[in-house]
Amino acid sequence: MMKKVYSAEERYEALKLANEIGNKAAAERLGIKLDTLYTWISKAKTGKVGFCDNPGNIPITDPNRLKQLEKELQEAREEIEILQDALGFFVKRRKK
């Protein structure tokens, strides 16, 4: 049986999904072996050049990535809070 070869973009997307939903769930959803995913994670952490660059060619080990994700998370939380306040306003208004 021939071994499946994954592109750098496929590996990047798999690692991104694993980061979002967990390694085991991502491997199951994508139909890849968990050991394969762990190997990719290890190689990405060591910064193997060209192994897992995203489509914008920014390595997953980019030190600014964490700051960017934290900022996006904070913005999303603020948006959720605004939407919850608006929902509460309309629910109260409708009850009257």
UniProtKB/TrEMBL annotation:
Matching Pfam families: HTH_Tnp_1
InterPro entries linked: Homeodomain-like_sf, Transposase_8
Keyword Coiled coil applies: yes
Assigned keywords, A-Z: Coiled coil
Secretion signal, residue range per the UniProt entry: none
Segments forming a coiled coil: 66-93
Entry keyword Coiled coil: yes
The protein's name: Transposase
Organism: Acetobacterium wieringae
